[in-house]
Every structure is written in structure tokens, then in C-alpha cells.
Fold these 3 entries.
Entry 1:
Amino acid sequence: MIIALLYAILIVAYSIFLLKLYFSWKNIKSNNTEKPGKVSVTVLIPVKNEAEHIELLLSDIDNQNFDEDFEAIVINDHSSDKTLKLCNSFSMDHHSLRILSLPSGKEGKKAAIEYGVKHAKHEVILTTDGDCRLGREWVKSISRAFRREVNLISGPVKYRSTSKGFSKLLNMEFASLIGVGGAMLNSGIPGMCNGANLAFRKNIFHKVGGYSDNKDFPTGDDEFLLRKVWKEEPGSAIFLKDRKSIVSTKPPENLGVFFQQRKRWSSKWKRHKEFYSIAPGIFIFLVYLLQLSGFFHLLINPLSSWNTLFLCFVAIKILIDQYFMKSVLSFLVEPFSNRYFLFLQLIYPFYSLIFGLVANFGSYSWKGRTYKI
């Protein structure tokens, strides 16, 4: 009975929270409908061992439909494959592309971005990753959204679709993260964003000190910067809900890579200091903890009168989740599958609890390096 009552209270709160996110997501404006001003842009691409993908990305950048002045800088983070050779070869025929290499003693994505910002010619900085693909309007779409009051733009990212069921499942789960991050930001809460599609002004980067207070932490180049910009200039960060700005990235190829990636992402949580950053994680952890407890109670006591109330609230939660997911996937031009959605609903409580715990201990691997949490 106690579990059912606690779960009922939390699910009511969760449903209100999710409905707020749903309407916030639906109400995000495209942000680029105004007549664009002249914006000069530098695209930064930090890379480590991206020989398999980098030429496709560089071709996408070379094919951008953008008439204003812009440059692209690849910052090589001590790659041990042919990444640097391929980039140098490409730059010989494309003079708007510059190749930099991190000096000895510096490594990691944050160091690469800081090094790129230092050498960037232009005020507006766009960042993406070496395994990403871009549409022809990517630079134009983001640059149009840089109105005078905007200092940072979080752009949409999705996984490239494959025929594998595991990939389709990941697409849906990843889309939910993008949707929640965009809706929260539109509601005035700087939560999640993705460094594969992030843009900011060089002056705000210097004003907030770049990564000066979190250099010791290898990840978080995106979310920590978002929070610092919001704290310095509240309301000056936006989510760009424009299909032309969507960036696609390679999905994790197997469960092991996925586990390491999500452990890395989840490890950022304990470094957040603001209440609005910490509270949602604790809240969602409790929701899924009680949901699992409720299912366990149902199995051992199937005749309990509280089971009906518990299942009703589970159904309400799933229904609201479904509306939200359909809206986000529609924007990302990705299909919605009831089969994969219901499977996610089944495993997500376990997923949330596992990563809520393992993100606080041990280590993870990333780009051939191992980092302690």
C-alpha cells in the first residue's frame, strides 16, 4: 500500500513534469525566421582516430550553402590512425580548412576546443564531432538564429538509422534525451545538450572562463558550458528546433560501447552544483525505483487491491511518454515504433537505476583512453 501511494504521488508529479515538457517542446519556435544578419563563423572539429568518417564530414562542410565568411578548423587530438594525413590531404584543395594539432601535454576534447577557439578568426563558433554528417544548410540555419541576445545555441542531434533492431532502439532512446534537453532549455532550465551540435559566441566563452573550472573532468564540454553561459547571461541560450540544423552521428555499434558512452554521460551528473540540475535526476531515479518496487509487489501479491491503482498510473505515464516521443521523433524525421517504444518502457527502469549507480564509481573508456570517475 505504501509503495502504491508513493508511486501514485510521484507519477502525478512526473506526469505534470512531462506534460510541461511536452507543451514546452511543442512551443519551441524555429528561432531563425527573422531576416538574417551578417555572421562570420568558425567551425571547430576536435578529432581523435576518426579516419573512417572524417572525409565524409569534411565534404559536408565543403558543400555548405553559406555565402558569408566562414572557416573550418580540425583540431587533431593525437590521433594514431590516418586522421591527420587525410585531413592534410583534404586541406590542400580546400583553403578554408585549417588543420591544427594539440601540442604535447594537452589532450582531450576540452583542450582541443579551447585550442581551436584560440586560433579561430571569427566570433561565432560552431562545434561538431568527427563522425557526424551535416546537411547543406547546417551553418546557415545556426547562423540565422544568432540574434543579438543569443550567446549559445544547442542544436538537434540524432543517430544515423540502420536496419538493426538495436540501432532503432537506440534512436528512440537518444531522441528522448534530445527532446527533454530542448524542452527544458525552452522552459528556462539549462539541462542536457550535445557537443556534436553546439554553437556559441567567442566572447561569452572567454567571459565565463571556458572550461577553467572543470578541466580535470574529461567530459561535459557541452553541458557545463551551457550552464555557465546561462548563469552569466540568463535566457541567452536557446534550442534550435529547425530540421535544417539536425546533425546525425554514428550510433554505438554494440552494447559494450553503448555502456561506456552512457556511463561517461551519466558521470557528469555528480559534478553539477545547481539544484535544477540535480533534482530531475533524483526525481526520475525515485520514479523508476518505485515502479520496479511496484512490479515486484504485483508479482508476489497479485491479488492486492492496490495493484489496479498502480497499473493505472503506469498506463498514464506510458501514454504521456508516447505523445512526447512521437512529437520529438516527428521533428527528427524518424519513425515511431510501438514495439520498440514498449520495449523501452519495460527496460528503462532498470537502465535508469543501473546508470544512476555505476556513474558514481569505477572508470570508463573513451577514445582509447581510460578515465576514473
Entry 2:
Amino acid sequence: MILRVIMVLALFGAAAPAVWREWRSERAWAALRASGVLRIGIDPSAQPLSFFMPDGWTGYEADMARALAADMGLASQAVLIGYDGRFDALQTGQIDVFISAATLEDGRPDFVWSESYLDMGTRLIAPVQENVRQAADLEHRRVAVARGSAADRSVRYWVRRVAGLERVAVEDDVRAIEELRAGRVAAVFVSAEAALRAGCPSRGSGENGAGERCVAISPTTYAVLMRAGEQRLLHEINAALRRLREGELPRRWQVRWFSPTSAP
């Protein structure tokens, strides 16, 4: 009998921290729901993602953040923080989440990141018929790239590793894509902005609707940053992001903010 009691107490003691964390997480979520407002830390310093216009905070991330809050049944409140102050603002409870080009970082056990909502890394674009699914498939082919860009550094890396890969340097991403669509090169390496303007998926690899395959070469994923203890909030945000991805809004934001005629 005593042994059974000891075993029960041991099991309870092992489970207690997890139960406590879940209780605190649910309590924080209930308080947030009761407030009716998601306080969003922002750094409005990067067009077209997050910046100010006379009518207030705007950009791709502004549209996404407002839609995210609305999907969870909350109003959104933008709180000007600045990128360097994101962790302190979360720790002190000044904000509930931070949405401004937040990338995953190692060695931050007090914080968690949601699923990605945008990839701002270098992309490879090639006609579907070229059957290019990774940089290693570019043997003995010509690739255009904007001279001196981050994409150019990536191409130079692959030139040393892929047999017969020929780099064609041009003045900018626009010209690189023109070379591709004129059939003078088999593929291009371009910035995320250029890839999004060309209709590439906002996240990862996939086709762009113009008969071209877009490949994420060096992913730079942006996600919603929050405190590690609020697992219920993390769950709700990830669920909301998935619902938004199933609809037309992300595509509309992409067209609005990354088309050649998008607002400044």
C-alpha cells in the first residue's frame, strides 16, 4: 500500500509542472480573449512589409497581422517597439506578439515562433520543362543573376559545386527575369521581392502560374514571435495562419505589396 502511494505521488510530481504550465497558458489565453485586443509589437522600418503612411501602419505584415487577429476574434493594436526591443517588450508584457520580420533564433528558450507566414530568402526560378527542383539540377546550364546581390553570392557558391553551371551577371532582378523569359538562360536566382513580384509562392517552393517553378534556395522565414509559456496562444495563431493560407487573402496581399505597381 505504501509503495502504491509513493508511486502515485511520484507520478503526480512528474506531471505537476506540465499541468501548471498548461493552466497558466489557458489562463493567459482567457485573459487575452477577455481583453478583446491582440497587442502587436511592430518595427515599421521596412517597405513593403511594415511602414507608416499618413493613414497609419500599413504593408504586407500590417494586412496579415490585422487579418490574423480578426480570425481569432480579436481587435488588433499596433505597438511601436523596434526590432531590438522585441524580446524585452514581450518579457515585460508590453505586447502579446511581435510581427516584424521575426526569424527563428537558437538559444532563446523563453520565446517561441509560429509557423512561417512569409519566406524572404533567395529563390531560383526556372521553366517547369527544365525540371529544376534544386540548384544541383543546373549542370551545364546558364543562370542569370543581379550582379553583386545576395542571390549572386548564392550563384557563385553553386558555380563551384555544379559542373558546367554558367553565371550570367546582369544589372538587376528585372533584367534577370527578362533574360529567363526570353529563353536566353535556363534559370535565374533572384531576391524574395523579385520572386514574389513574379508570382512565386509566399512560402517555400512551388509554381507561380506562369509556367515556372520557384525553388527556395536559402529560406529566410518570418514568423510570429511570442512568449514560450503561452502554448494556447501559439496553437491559436498557428491555426489562424493555416486558415488564412486556405483563402485568397495572402495572394491579395502579395499582389498589393509586391506587384511592380504596388504602393510605396
Entry 3:
Amino acid sequence: MRESQPAAGTKRRHRRQRLMGLETPFGQVLDLSDSGALLFRKGDEPPAVGSGLSLELADGAERVALRVRVVRVQALGLRRYEVGVAFLGLDDAQLQLIRLIAAHAAADFSPRAYLAA
């Protein structure tokens, strides 16, 4: 993942990288940055904004267990949600694993394309 800054005028701290094919038990990772992720989730109830969750990212032999806080939930249709999470208490080793996992995932994926699946 490149360590460039986000576009001028945004409130983001880190550049986001769009991903395809990175799944977690919680849902599909749509994009990833050094400070958080956007996930696509199907289910009856979305998590509450402000709630804490455990999330594991894995790609082949690389795995990283993370604590996250839900910062945004957007309904996309019947039982389909985008869930924005912020990483909590990352150490350097976790950050390097996040970057390595992101580098292996395909880029330039439209999050809305997954809705038809």
C-alpha cells in the first residue's frame, strides 16, 4: 500500500486502497487504509456505530487479528450494509501485516458491484 496522503480537502488521515477478494468472517473488505477499513456485510442487523469488534484479516499465510470500532453503517438495500471501521491500538507489526495483505489483494474494485452477488 502506498503511503501517500489522501486528496486535499478530505478528512481522511490515510489513503484508502480498494480491494477485491479479501474476505473476513464479518464480511468482504472493500477498501483498506492504515487506520481502518470499509466492509460489505449481509445480515439481519448491522453492528451499532461505536461498538467494538474483533476482526481478522488473512491472505494465505499472512494473518492479523485486530480490534476495531464501528464508525459508520450505511444500508445499501435489504440486509446489505457498508460498515466503516477504525483500527484500535495498532502496533508496528500489525500495521506491516495490514500493508502486506493489502498489497496482495487486487485493486480498483467498485464496492457497488458486489451488491449483485
